Amino acid sequence: MFLRKWGFEFIGTEDGTEAWRILQERDGPRLAILDWKLSGMDGLAICRGIRQRVGQPTVYIVMLTGQSQKAEIQRGLDAGVDHYMIKPFEPEELRAVLLQGCRVVESAGDPR
């Protein structure tokens, strides 16, 4: 609801495997909001996979999750998460993070 209100196009997925498939598409999303705990393929595995791709467009990854221990946050950041947010979250903080992500993606260009 918030994403559409803020003018973002939104693609929801049923599980991590579908999210991974969509993120692999040639014109896939350049900004992703992932949860750590997803069925099929978890958010950390998706993040690691995205970061291992070579010659692909930048994807800004927001991990929005209930995993709040310092060790978990560190694991997320080590996996390549760009911004880590703990649930519950403030919608305006998420909006600011997404706008930051847009700036990063736009400045990164597109290697295609």
Describe this structure in words.
The chain has a single domain, classed as Rossmann fold. A 3-stranded parallel sheet has the order 1-2-3, sandwiched between helices. The model has no long low-confidence stretch (mean pLDDT 94). Strand 2, helix 4 and strand 3 form a beta-alpha-beta unit. The N and C termini lie far apart (32 Å). Helices cover 46% and strands 12% of the residues. By secondary structure, the chain is of the alpha/beta class. The chain has 5 helices and 3 strands. Helix 2 packs parallel to helix 3. It is globular.
Number of helices: 5
Low-confidence stretches at least 5 residues in length (pLDDT < 50)?
Answer: none
State the major sheet. 3 strands, parallel
The CATH superfamily is known as: Response regulator
CATH top level label = Alpha Beta
CATH topology: Rossmann fold
Q: Architecture, according to CATH?
A: 3-Layer(aba) Sandwich
* Number of separate structural domains: 1
Distance between the termini: 32 Å
Global structural class: alpha/beta
